[in-house]
Amino acid sequence: MSENAITCREMVELMSDYLDGALPAPERVRFETHLAGCTGCANALDQLRTTIRVAADLREERLADEQRELLRAVFRDWRRGG
Amino acid sequence: MDLVDGLRPAMLRIARMYVSSVAVAEEVVQDAWVGVLRGLDGFEGRSSLRTWILRILVNVAKTRGVREGRSVPFASLAGDDLDRPSWDPSAFLGPEAEWAGHWSTFPPSWATIPEDRLLSAETRRLVASAIEALPPMQAEVIRLRDVLGWSSEEVRNALDLSETNQRVLLHRARAKVRQALAPYLERAT
Question: What is the rounded average pLDDT for all residues in chain B?
Fold first, then answer.
């Protein structure tokens, strides 16, 4: 193991910044070097990516709720003969 | 109209961080819109409109909070767990091991989880409640960044955060949401 290699424990603390493109160049190179040879960190990074993707889904749900609410309101008006 | 309605929930939550009640937060949102209309001529487009509006809101809310005699220290909004490890420390080999700090067992791959499980109502419910449970500023940063898809610069400007604080808050928030999802997603079907 080389002197300045990053451990997996350190890797997980850098993953959010890595995904945001916020790691400075030298650190990003060390991060990617480690990542290329580490299944555990590749899995951990994928978990974080998935978490972010799933979080983005909440937005659609909220929009869907609003659509449903709108439909309900339109339906109520229609039944009232409006 | 869309902008007004779309921003309203975020405006209310953010205002509520700085003032004493939902009722006062509602007033702050009203006042902020007045400020927006007054200042619209001076809006130079250096930031996005939604960012600029939230920034006005934050300023109005902070001023109102001070007038209420509330001082809300940043730490109480940001949470006191920012330095906490984002992964269970027992997942890594201890200092006595030759490969100290490396995984003791690899975290499982989520790549094989079926899409309908990832997109299930239960997954969304878990994410929503994990976000609810976060300290307010962590919750707001992850909502704006990951749920609504704003850029880091927009979020930083809107919430009046330094670049470092934005990054650290988001990192912490994402880590906790991931932790909350893991038991459900990794459970055998």
Answer: 92
